[in-house]
Amino acid sequence: MQEKKFEYHHAVFLVPFLSLLAIWAVYFLNWKYFLQLNEYGIYPRTLSGLKGVLFSPFLHGDISHIVNNSIALLVLLPLLVFFYKDRYVKVLLLGWLLSGLGTWLIGRPSFHIGASGLVYVLTSFLFFSGIRTKYYRLMAVSFIVVVIYGSSVWYMFPDVKEGVSWEGHLSGFLIGVLLAFGFEKQTYEPYYKYDWQRPDFDASKDAFMKHFDENGHFNPKPEEEEQLQQVQEDTFFTSSSLPLSFKIHYQEKPADETETETKE
Q1: Is the pLDDT of residue 40 over 90?
Q2: Are strands 236-237 and 261-263 parallel, antiparallel or unpaired?
Q3: Model confidence pLDDT, tens digit, residues 59-104
């Protein structure tokens, strides 16, 4: 695959904006009207708790919880949408659902809420996808993710901090890894604007480069004999409607003589 020209598109702004708008709108309604929406979180290994797979990313316990997740999504979502334009929808949907199911399977008997699971999906996917492609732009994204969120790996272990769903973090991280290696590997060939940038470029076969000597000095060469002969060659005219060929000969004569022209 040829190197991609990464360009800004509207989804780079719309996806993070709509995601954060939905999260904050639910948080405001829950706080304003005491809706007790946290009961719509994931409650592991119960049939009723499965509804949390869909709703838990929109639910947060307090202001610090939602602020931390919002900042992470504000950083990670634009990176995902911009650099993985062809598959970001699949990553988001599968990461959302599968990380929720993983939390439902391994979680403690309690309501698990928050978008942290999805944050860990994005973190691990961006990191491992970039490393896997070995493409310098995407590897740079991996480096950025490690610098910013590398320390979050410690929150995937039990009893790190009371009230933290390490099961959701671990589930999200593992799902991100699976998605990074589950999709078809993308290979990139450098984008060459000019032929002379290609590694297999042969200057000896290039019409323009032939005018440069061994020292790189521009030294135009006279036209080759073949080019001169081609100009002097007879020209034939053919017509699809007339199956005839006309051969025209031109001869130069002194000014005092009459110019002749013969046709066959």
Answers
A1: yes
A2: unpaired
A3: 999 999 999 999 999 999 999 999 999 999 999 999 999 999 999 9
Closest CA to 133 of 178, 86, 183: 183
Q: Do 113 and 159 sit in the same domain of this protein? A: yes
Residues 154 and 27 in one domain: yes
Q: Give CA–CA dist 21/78, Å, rounded.
A: 15
Are 160 and 52 in a shared domain?
yes
- Is-contact 20 76, C-beta < 8 A? no
What is the domain range of residue 90?
11-182
* pLDDT confidence bin for 229, thresholds 50/70/90: low
Residue type, 238: T
Residue 217 domain flag: yes
pTM of the model: 0.72
CA distance 172 to 165: 11
Which pLDDT belongs to residue 64?
94
Measured distance CA(124)–CA(142) in Å, rounded:
9
Number of structural domains (the chain) is: 2
Other beta carbons less than 10 A from residue 59's beta carbon: 24
Residue 97 in any domain: the answer is yes
> CATH number for the domain including 139?
1.20.1540.10
